[in-house]
Structure formats: structure tokens, C-alpha cells
Amino acid sequence: MQVIENSSFEYLKGKRILVTGSMGYIGSHLCNLLTPYGVSIDQWDLLNNKNIGFLTNDNVIGVDAIVHLAALSGVHECSENKERAIYRNLKCARHVLKIAEKAKIPLVFSSSMAACEPESGFYATTKYLIEDEIFDANNRFFHETRNCFLLLNLPLMFSIRFANVYGGNDYLFDKKTVISNFINKLKKKEKCIIHGNGEQKRDFIHVSEICRFILYLLNLKFAFMQNCYNKKDEILDKVYHSFFISNGNFNSPISLGTGIQHTINEIKDMFIKYHKNISDDNFEYDPQASCGIIDSKVDTTILEKKYCFTAKDYLDEYIQNLEI
Questions:
Q1: Which of 48, 111, 239, 300 might form a disulfide with 259, Cβ 3.0–4.6 angstroms?
Q2: Which residues of 215-227 are buried (b: 16+ CB within 10 A; e: fewer)?
Q3: Measuring CA to CA, how many Å separate 295 from each of 96, 115, 183, 193, 209?
Q4: pLDDT at residue 177 above 60?
């Protein structure tokens, strides 16, 4: 599946980007996509013995941008590993933000919409499991950091919150989501359990679309920093005027999704439609099971109007091409 559009990302060439969580699900995909564009990548991950808790200002000398993806993912996993979640998702995130602020380095910070804090727009996957005062302190820190980036005219801080992610290498091993659960169960000839009546709605986004948007953001930022982009490039020119001429705010959190909803029943029907060995008999409903969020859809207004970016919906194609 080719999900990266034909874009040169010309302003990425020769840049040095530090990626935290570089060996994780999204981080590994991002690093693989950055390499062909002539980017030098500093990979920080616990799996290569580079703990971001020990990241210093000396480590970021010569770094052009930081993409912070390191975190313990999933509310369920965080609830079972509270201490690790607080360390990785809160303390390490705050540490990286401080490093970026002090060194005046552009920062891309991301997390799942599953743990979005509605009052602020900022989020942490630990919001459901830690004391309010801990999360509030972290929340205040994000606000203070964002204000510093704005008031001191420091490089931009992009804050992304994304919808339900699927696809890519290691997805079936790294993620416990409705789609990966269905696939793994079907491969084992086991029943797929659908919580409730299956009418809960989700916005699903392919992992490569998240990576494409991060590349897109970095390319925009470097183009504007160099002040040398081609004014004939209609997309770059529109985004430039939207934010820098009209006093737009790049620092507002960006919701990343397709804006298209699929019910769990629709996903079930896709599996049945494209795989002759699968039928309704492979699925079972549990009316008493928790359905989580009933209606989840990304408002793509800012994404499309201010960033001129549209995330593509590859879910149908993804399920069709599965080998089950």
C-alpha cells in the first residue's frame, strides 16, 4: 500500500531530526520514511539503551527538530503499569519539552485522542489512572511551555492528537485494538467478540498517514524558517498566509484523522465481504461488555483549512488485502 503522496519534502533534505520512541510502533515507521529524504536521524529509545530521561542539551546540539513519540501507549496498558506510565508519559515528556524550549528547537508532540483532556486540548494516556493533582500539574506545564514558545518567539511546537491507528509492520503484535483483535482472532479460528451492539463509531487512520503528516509539518516548518520556499507553491503559500500573515496559531493542538466514521459492525462486514472463509458465525456479541466511547470522529476543519492536509481513508483497502 503506497500511502505517501508524491511529494519531494524538499526542505527536509540535510536536516537532523531527533526521534524519541524511534523503535516503537509509530516511531519506527517515521524513521523508515524520513531516511529517503536525506534526513539524519538521532534515534532515542529504551530498546537501544537511550533513555530520554537522560537527554541533555549537549545531545541536541545541531538538531533541527525533535519528534517526541516515546510513551507507554494505551489506557489499559497504562492502568496496569502506573509507575512506568507516569515516568514515560509525564516526566519524560516534560523533560523533552524543557530541552526543546531551552535549545529553541521545533518540537512535534503527539498522543492518542483516546486520552484527550477536553478542557485544555492537551492529553496524556495516563489521565485515567493518576491523581488529579499530578495530571493537573502536567497540564499546567504544557500550557506554560506553549506560552513560552509563543511569548518568546521560540520555534514552533506542534501538538498532534490522532484517531484510532492501524496498519503497518508489527501492528498485530504491538497494538491491541478492535481491528488487530479481529485479525488475530480470525487467524486463530477463534470467535471475535463485539462489545455491545457494534454500532459504536470510530475514526480510523493508517499509521503511514500519521507519519506523512509529521513529515508534512516538518517540511512546512523548515520552509518557513529558511524563508526560501517557492511562492508559486499554492499549498505552502496558503498555509504561510493563514498562520504568519493572519496571526494564526500553529501551537493549537491538531486533531488528526480522516473525518470518516466506521461502526464496528461495518468493520465486521468488511471482513466478511473480502474474505470468503469468514462469515457472521466468526463473530459474537457481548451486550454487557463496555463499549468505551460511543461516537468518535475527528473534526478535520483545522487540518484541512489551515494546514491544507487531508488524511486518506485506507481501511477498506487494508482489510481487503489482508491474508487471513
A1: 300
A2: bbbbbbbbbbeee
A3: 33, 14, 23, 19, 22
A4: yes
